[in-house]
Every structure is written in C-alpha cells, then in structure tokens.
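User: Show me a protein chain along with its predicted structure.
Assistant: Here is one chain, sequence first, then structure tokens.
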Amino acid sequence: MKKTRIYIDTSVIGGCFDVEFSAWSNGLMEDFAAGTFMPVLSDMVAAEVRDAPERVRQKYEALLSSEHEFILITEEVIHLAEAYQRRQILTPKFYDDGVHIALASVAEADLLVSWNFKHIVHFDKIRLFNSVNLEQGYKPLQIYSPREVTKFEGG
C-alpha cells in the first residue's frame, strides 16, 4: 500500500521542543519512524534548520537517516512561489512560506503539515494557494497541523 507523503516545514521539527506543540510534532515523528507516513523534506527546510538550535538539527538529522523523500527548489517551484506573490497571498517578507507551499505542490505531496497558522494553515490562505495551484495546472494541496494528522492519541 502506498504511504501518504507528507511535506513538513521547519515548524514541525521545531515543534518537537515547544511545550504547546511537542506532543503532536513528536507523535508525527514517531509515525514517520514507524513507516506510517513518508516524510517529504526539502532543501528549503535544510537551509532553515542550519541556523536552528542543536536539538532541532539532531531531530532533522534523524529524519534524514530514516526513509524519506527529498525535493529541491527548482525553476518550477520558484515560478509557482512567484505566482503566489503576484496574487499577494503573502507579503514579500514571508516569501519562504510560499516556497514551502510550492515545493509540496510541485512534488505532489499528499499533505503539507505545519504549525504556521498565520501564513500556511489558515482557511483563507489555503483557498488562495489552491486557486493559484489550479490556475497553474497543479492539484489542490491539503494543509493541516500535525495534531490533525498524527496517529498519536495524546492530549
């Protein structure tokens, strides 16, 4: 059976060490380790993790050492991220958030998971990202928080 491919942004990895989000982020990491889902990582996440605290870098390294998919920022990704900018879905300051959406969309990830409720996991933003995706010939992207995705039963 095909595994659900989940693009995770850096907030999910950092969330493993945040009191509010740790149960759900770590639950999702356990799901990846158990092979329940396939993590989709990117060179954008790799770049963001470089400046993160050591424990976040170690959590990311653990993901890299297990089964995963790794995608790169390409001209196609940049073109889609720029389409989001032209539509003013995000301000230029948050361009990188659009790159995460574009990476997941171009890679045809099944889901994107994030704790970024202001710029990514937000009803209005999701509708706008998906309208651009459809106009540009991409599938709509399902976007959730780890809490809605992990098999973890805590809380």
